[in-house]
């Protein structure tokens, strides 16, 4: 038989999704699992989201909608971007997609092609390099302490550089770009005529004062070259509903819309109504409680001999450097043995471009978190 697509075959499976499947299977087999690998909040979805979804079903909303989403949802997103981010978009510049992941893929497809380079700061969310590769472009991984500096971006730029990816607060590091850091990056972006894909999916999980700054909000010349991606998956604990969106300059938004029109059409209409309810009923108290978990998790983790970790300002992960406790093992072996011997599930840093790190999520109950960290401490020192 003729070979299958080499481009598709070059894509690595998501390590976080496969680990989760493995942990779920262990749990189903009756084994104890303390799962700190989760990439989703553990609080319930907003009541209004349920209500709007049920009403959408009762009202008989069962047909195709506009490819880019129902007008009510795009208007709600428009208002959110204006209020939270100081970004003024027309509803036509917003495209609702099947999760932020799909919105990102649309953005890369609209911006990149064979021969282009896309700068991705490492540690990175596992999906960025694979999505970029699917477009034919080449991911250019730039190692950073946790955030890309203007100097690092400048050094990575070549005549082929098309896009830079910014994720703030970031998965896996939880680092948030400050306004001065974005100002410096914006200068490089403008000088080299780059586009920015800005992923703000963890925006509401931010533990310092003030809102998370967006590079698109620094001025019209930045907004004109940035695709802002966000959604309700994390902020409203609705990962299963698959609602994300991209906001972009009109020409890019039109292209994204065209791509989506031939690939998937609109997102589930019931989920779109649910998303409006979610955005009107954001679970702020639950989100705020994650700050305490961060503090507990960070304190206990950094008390373990040999484990170093910056205190993250956002998201719900810790991403410590564990090189001194690996003792010759890879992070993959370390995590596999930790799971086998203690039942604690963590993600090795390998898939995030940081092979001497591990990622743990504190989006779990405090007692589970504490027990898991006790076991990690005993394992690391054993
Ligand atoms: C940085 C980042 N962006 C995007 C996503 C995808 O979000 P969604 O579930 O809305 O597709 C995730 C999910 O883990 C993420 O960590």
UniProtKB/TrEMBL annotation:
InterPro entries: Aminotransferase_I/II_large (IPR004839), AspAT/PAT-like (IPR050596), NHTrfase_class1_PyrdxlP-BS (IPR004838), PyrdxlP-dep_Trfase (IPR015424), PyrdxlP-dep_Trfase_major (IPR015421), PyrdxlP-dep_Trfase_small (IPR015422). The keyword Transferase applies. SUPFAM superfamilies: PLP-dependent transferases (SSF53383). One of its GO terms (biological process) is antibiotic biosynthetic process. Residues 32-376 form the Aminotransferase class I/classII large domain. The keyword RNA-binding does not apply. Its cofactor is pyridoxal 5'-phosphate. This is Aminotransferase. GO terms for molecular function: pyridoxal phosphate binding; transaminase activity. Belongs to the class-I pyridoxal-phosphate-dependent aminotransferase family. It comes from Amycolatopsis endophytica. Keywords: Aminotransferase, Antibiotic biosynthesis, Pyridoxal phosphate, Transferase. Its EC number is 2.6.1.-.
